[in-house]
Design goal:
Chains A, B: Pfam families: LacI, Peripla_BP_3. The structure is a homodimer. With about 375 residues, chain A is an alpha/beta fold. Chain A has 13 helices and 13 strands. Chain A folds into three domains: about 45 residues, 434 Repressor (Amino-terminal Domain), CATH 1.10.260; about 130 residues, Rossmann fold (3-Layer(aba) Sandwich), CATH 3.40.50; about 130 residues, Rossmann fold. At the A-B interface, strand 1, helix 4, helix 5, strand 3 and helix 6 of A face strand 1, helix 4, helix 5, strand 3 and helix 6 of B. The structure holds a DNA duplex (30 and 30 nucleotides).
Chain lengths: ~375, ~375
DNA sequence: GAGTATACTGGAACCGGTTCCAAACAGCAA
DNA sequence: TTGCTGTTTGGAACCGGTTCCAGTATACTC
């Protein structure tokens, strides 16, 4: 009888936080205390304009004495900038997005910008986030991950003078950082072909529910690599499955049930690939002997599981996107780049030559 | 010759974003357009005070015509609130923190609050974040994850009237949401004891670099369970390793090198437990036959790998913490709770009875 | 000693909202 | 018509900073 995760609430004497005690000191209080004008205090704060050393010292003493802290809200108004950057990101939990966020965070850490997150779980959120972002001018710029704003949204961004950079999505009017998914998929498939495989299946996931256009490009790349090699494309070798290990698992099961099961699978995400490995083990297949598997993304555990996969430079993408945006903010104009990263094949233990018969046809390393 | 992940930059005609074109319409513009006073426009916006239907319609028409959007920055000043909540979170990449964030996000999605993230990677960041948070009043409240503010920080939070809730850490003056790590560790160890194990090791990680006090509680719980069962504690069975799969791997290797290696390991994190499983496989140990493993957290892949582990309700913790904070903001006073969640043992495939000799002593399910 | 930079400084005006007070107006009873 | 509520409305004052202009003091030149 499993104990439920009950939560024990320990009551304590009610901790009222002082509802309206100490009023914060304002710039005028400091000015009075130091016997100077508010302009002088402001100058001391910003450091832009010259202030006599003696005066500066008096003002600083007053600030310290009063525990003065400038209010960002008040600064934001005349400065016309919030010193925050908004990130619009779908499906917070997926490794890919977390990694991108991490990269963004790294780039922003050095700057003075705060990070405001808009998480999108459903398509409806998407528009709400854009609304809020654009309307409220809560941030000075936006990073949009894996989401393509529609033209009216791009228009409002522009008319509001709100610079935005797309990461893993594209729009002609906005700078973007992307991965050549199509080429990556082709490379992954070519690797399997070079290993001698002719029966190569694809297990991919549906596009994210919030991403309106499907630009994944994995299927096109896969097909192209096949056709290059003169391998006929087979509809029954292309499986769409959930973006979960279980999805991959059922995906592979259905492939193994075919009259002529594949000897290799290219899986559109490592998350699914983990399930593929599990299903293979469960079916008694030896990897890579009986089945070769290539994943996609290079998730943290992939290295550990020994999964051969296409490494997508997720963190770098975030970093680069943030840098682009910071530049734009600084310069007042876009760096007009569309930066395209290439995924890199990482060979590990889950793929090898097609069978023991022709093991001389290729070796596991030095292939690229 | 592996192709490096080069980035191809495609130049495009410089996309200058209009530097200072359309000035945003202000509330005064709307008032003029609609032929009313600014007060009336404000009333229409807020909906608080009564406005004659005809007037409201005129104002709304004017707003639409001018594309008017109220500025949050301007609203924040007189309202004395920013409608944002700050989350101070260490080590963004760890699954635990991402899950907590996810829970927070869920709770906040319904509210009108934006989410501002302060990510802490080094101890120095911690104070900087608090400084910024407190000083600048960028948010109306704060959620602090796994970090214990020092007393001066708590003081400034209180003197500034900034409500804060701690998640996975505690302070007498602040509400908190935590897990009973000690009990959880004891439960995990007891489970192994009940399976008949007497040689039980602990592999744990150092405290997070940014968390000053070490309140993990895993070692104490482990030791307590041992002593309850009359099993002598052995220094060589307690290993501290990096918070990575590799850490777990080397941890287990060192345990296996002992003259009397353990038959079971309780690992302080699933991340490390994955490495433990790998090291066991590599050493030719059968799991759970030769080695029983219990992890900690119930990371996403744990289920999939079949890892028996203590489930920590990470998302719930985030959600609950955010709710506490939202309540505090709404009511102007703290819900004075210290909420304590219990971790739950999730039995999967990585632990079983001590050896084949006494396999009748316990069964894998129905143990709790 | 007058003339003129130069270095500081004070504070009004402003950013774009909210709030509140007083005024305008409508409706109704006396 | 007058007096008295009650509803709407206008706009000044304010939130807490920044900016800029004008003014004062000091220094330097001739």
């Amino acid at each position: 009888m499993a104990r439920k995760q009950e939560e024990a609430v320990q009551q304590e004497p009610a901790t009222r936080w002082p509802v309206s005690t100490a009023k914060r000191a304002t710039i005028r209080d400091v000015a009075r205390e130091a016997g100077v004008g508010i302009g002088t205090v402001s100058r001391v704060l910003s450091g832009h304009a010259p202030v006599a050393p003696a005066t500066r010292a008096r003002v600083e003493a007053a600030m310290r004495k009063l525990g003065y802290r400038p209010s960002r809200a008040a600064q934001a108004l005349p400065r016309r900038r919030t010193n925050a950057i908004a990130v619009v990101v779908p499906l917070f939990t997926r490794y890919f997005y977390v990694e991108v966020l991490r990269g963004i965070e790294q780039a922003l850490a050095a700057s003075a910008y705060a990070l405001v997150i808009y998480s999108i779980e459903r398509a409806a959120d998407r528009d709400r986030a854009f609304e809020d972002l654009v309307e409220s001018r809560r941030a000075d710029g936006a990073l949009v991950v894996s989401l393509t704003p529609d033209s009216s949204q791009v228009e409002s961004l522009q008319s509001l003078n709100l610079p935005a950079v797309l990461i893993d999505s594209a729009h002609p009017a906005l700078p973007s950082v992307l991965v050549d998914h199509e080429r990556a998929a082709a490379d992954a498939t070519r690797h399997l072909i070079r290993l001698g495989h002719r029966h190569i299946a694809l297990i991919d996931h549906q596009e994210d529910p919030v991403r309106l256009e499907s630009t994944s490009g994995r299927a096109p790349g896969y097909r192209q690599a096949l056709s290059e090699a003169g391998i006929p494309w087979r509809a029954d070798y292309e499986v769409i499955a959930d973006f979960t290990p279980e999805g991959g698992q059922t995906g592979l099961r259905s492939l193994l049930a075919l009259p002529e099961p594949p000897t290799a699978v290219f899986v559109g995400s490592d998350t699914q690939a983990l399930g593929v490995l599990e299903a293979a083990r469960e079916a008694g297949l030896r990897i890579p002997g009986d089945l070769a598997v290539v994943g996609y993304n290079d998730v943290e555990v992939a290295r550990y599981v020994g999964l051969t996969t296409m490494r997508v430079p997720m963190r770098e993408m975030g970093r680069r996107g943030a840098e682009l945006l910071l530049n734009a903010l600084e310069q007042g104009q876009y760096d007009p780049a569309h930066i395209c990263f290439q995924a890199e094949l990482v060979v590990r233990r889950t793929c090898g030559p097609v069978s023991r018969r022709n093991d001389s046809s290729a070796r596991q390393d030095g292939l690229q």
